[in-house]
Amino acid sequence: MSSYLIKNAKIVNENTIFLGDVLVENEIIKEISSEIKATENVEIIDANGKYLIPGFIDDQVHFREPGLTHKANIATESRAAVAGGITTFIEMPNTVPQATTQNLLEDKFKIAANDSYANYSFMFGGTNDNLEELLKTDPKKVAGIKLFLGSSTGNMLVDNEEILEKIFSSTKMIISVHCEDEATIRKNTEEFKAKYGDDIPVKYHPIIRSEEACYLSSSKAIKLAKKTGARLHIFHVSTAKETALFRNDIPLKDKQITAEVCIHHLWFSDKDYEEKGTHIKWNPAVKTEKDRLGLWKALLDDRIDVLATDHAPHTLEEKTNVYTKAPSGGPLVQHAVTAILEKVKEGVISIEKAVEKMSHNPAILFQIEKRGFIKEGYFADLVLIDTNKPQTVSKDTILYKCGWSPFEGTTFSSTVTQTFVNGNLIYNNGLFNDKIKGKRLTFNR
């Protein structure tokens, strides 16, 4: 095992920044101090005042394996993730086949054990008819349950209200949900198709997948969670109106209902459809500037608990189809940290708060063992960031298998220079260690 001494770093942890050293031995953070003397067989990395943060824990990604590997796979996307400062991901069940049985779920874990550059877990997918299988999910070894209450693929739309209540009543695991009301979306879609056919201008996407569709579904899920006592986590909140459904008057560890916001809903607004087109077509939709600002407000005042990417790549050929045939989703893991650091530079959010939302809070929310903080005895998932090294996103620097990014042409002020996963230097100024893989997450439940 390699040992590293990271010196002269601006260490960001638990709402403080201090200049110091970190000693990494046998995958673990061995010591944190203002000054640590080097010993033999320790590789010294002089941070020269760079920020050292705990690795970003991304609680929602779609890495497309198995079955959709023409778009992406666990190896390519986790490689892009560690280059972007993401050391841990939780992947969704809507692959082909879908992870809706324990055997299919374990098949994905086996792929990740061989191929993933980052630490990993997967969610079990609930359907209208797999409750018995769902209840076999091991809470110590699996991140949680994922339910699509809208915008599902295959048979994963859980639209039987009796079954939905049974799921909420039967498991103490975190139930993460995609909330959009399908009846509202279908009605809106048909109205626009009647006018435009399949080639609906993409600027109408946030009107079709409307504030009403999101709020109806989110409020319904929260009402059911309160009725049943379920532990509910609402993914990718996209409207200012929904933020009023969440509370900030108790610690995160005590919340029964939590919320996530994604990078794209904080960065883009409906003003960007004219330039970006279907490249920023996501579900839920990127909405108005008022919604974007409302999401920022809720993130900063702790009604929204975590930041994520909802990384969901498609090929350029797929994305350039007409509206009704262009899939929703886009690649984000490589540039998520630098995008948020741009907002730090702009004064929108502090780096301490960003680390709380990207690293600390996902670890608390999912009860991940010994990750998400820079603490002695914790796994050394660490990221060094040079805030004085600009980078422009271009095709020749993109690591996603799909080969494109909604941030193409954007210049970020910061660059991730090194990423450690379990104490191993996996990414170092553009070079990768391809021999060491990430670990399966365990949970303190």
Automatic annotation (TrEMBL):
Its cofactor is Zn(2+). GO terms for biological process: purine nucleobase catabolic process. CDD domains: DHOase_IIb. GO terms for cellular component: cytoplasm. Its EC number is 3.5.2.3. It comes from the Bacteria. Residues 51-425 form the Amidohydrolase-related domain. Keywords: Hydrolase, Metal-binding. Pfam families: Amidohydro_1. GO terms for molecular function: allantoinase activity; dihydroorotase activity; metal ion binding. Catalyzes the reversible cyclization of carbamoyl aspartate to dihydroorotate. NCBIfam families: PRK09236.1, pyrC_multi. Belongs to the metallo-dependent hydrolases superfamily. DHOase family. Class I DHOase subfamily. This is Dihydroorotase. It comes from Polaribacter marinus.
